[in-house]
Amino acid sequence: MILIAGIRDAAYALSTIGPEGIEILTNAPQLDEWSGMCAIWALGQHPATGTNVIPFLIKASASGSEGTACGAIRVLGLFHVEGQKVIPALMGALVSANAHVRSDAAHALGAFGPSAAVAVPQLQMLANDPLAAGSAMAALRHIQ
Known about the structure:
There is one protein chain. The chain is mostly helical. The chain has a single domain (about 1-144), classed as Leucine-rich Repeat Variant. It contains ten helices and no strands. It has helices at about 1-15, 20-25, 35-45, 45-50, 55-60, 65-80, 85-95, 100-110, 120-125, 135-144. Helix 2 packs antiparallel against helix 3, helix 3 packs parallel to helix 6 (about 65-80) and helix 7 (about 85-95) packs antiparallel against helix 8 (about 100-110).
C-alpha cells in the first residue's frame, strides 16, 4: 500500500514542477499500468499542465490497458479542449471491445456539448449497448 500511495503522490508532485515533471509523467504509462494511471490522474488535476499534453492523452486513450485508456479518456473529457483533435479520438474509443472504455468515451464526448455533434450517430447506436447505454444517452442530452 505504501508503494502504491508513493507512486500516486510522486506523480502528483511531478505534475507541478514543469517540463521536467511532464516528461517523466508522459513516459510513465510505458512502465506499468499503475504508474500510467497515476501519471494521467496527476495531469488531470492540473489543467494548466495537463492541457499541454493533449497528444499524449489522445495516444493513451487508445491504450490496451483499461486503466490507462479510461483515465486518459476521462481527463480529455474533463478538459474538453482541442475538440478537432480529441473528438475523433473519443469517437474511436466508442467502438472499443471494452465496455468501460466505450462508456467513458461517451461521457467524455458529452462534455464537449454541441461541438461533438459529429458523434451523435455513433452515440445513438451505443444507446443500444446495455453496458454503455446510460453514458451514451447522457452524452446525447448534452450534445443535442
